[in-house]
Design goal:
8 helices, 8 strands, cNMP-bd_dom_sf, RmlC-like_jellyroll, cNMP-bd_dom, Crp/Fnr family transcriptional regulator
Length: 180
């Protein structure tokens, strides 16, 4: 873990009585699309993904790793149904916190509230970058950006999830990888 992640974990450490450690195997659904998110997950070990169901086809929207926090933030904050599912891709060790406890902590700690707002802007920016990449780049360029910005994804994520994330088939991804 980097120094920034360690610093954030230390800041949250004072609230450890509110967290519940949860170990889950790979392929565990933590939140199903359409359900209301009542839990936020902090990843100690492992990898999670978010995905949507498009007429029975799973489309991966994001990946999360050690040091990341994950929830359907829109649902978590508004108590509306989640737009996507959250699933573990690897066995995970997670620290979980309920929506009520999280709200209390954020209200009582301006520094953590600021960190959370920065996290939301970072997620928004990542989502915008991906959306713009889909609009202006071909699949080859999207793949090149992915391995340049997030090389660990290529090492840890199965190819069919990467293909889904890039909006292409596994066969197309294989062709792109073979051209490099």
């Amino acid at each position: 873990m980097d120094k920034q992640t360690i610093g954030k974990l230390k800041a949250w450490k004072q609230f450890s009585p509110y967290f519940v450690k949860k170990e889950v195997p790979a392929k565990t659904t933590l939140l199903q699309e359409g359900k209301i998110s009542t839990t936020m997950y902090f990843i100690e070990k492992g990898c999670l993904r978010t995905w949507i169901n498009n007429d029975g086809k799973e489309i991966t929207t994001q990946f999360f790793f050690e040091g990341d926090s994950v929830s359907s933030i829109e649902s978590f904050r508004t108590k509306q149904p989640s737009l996507y599912s959250i699933e573990s891709l690897e066995p995970c060790i997670l620290q979980t916190i309920s929506q009520k406890d999280f709200q209390n902590i954020i209200e009582d700690s301006p520094g953590l509230k600021k960190d959370f707002e920065e996290h939301l802007f970072k997620r928004l920016f990542q989502t915008q970058k991906l959306a713009y990449s889909f609009l202006k780049n071909n699949p080859q360029k999207r793949y090149e950006e992915l391995i340049e910005q997030y090389p660990h994804i290529i090492q840890r994520i199965p190819q069919h999830y990467i293909a889904s994330y890039l909006g292409i088939t596994s066969v197309s991804l294989s062709r792109i990888r073979n051209r490099r």
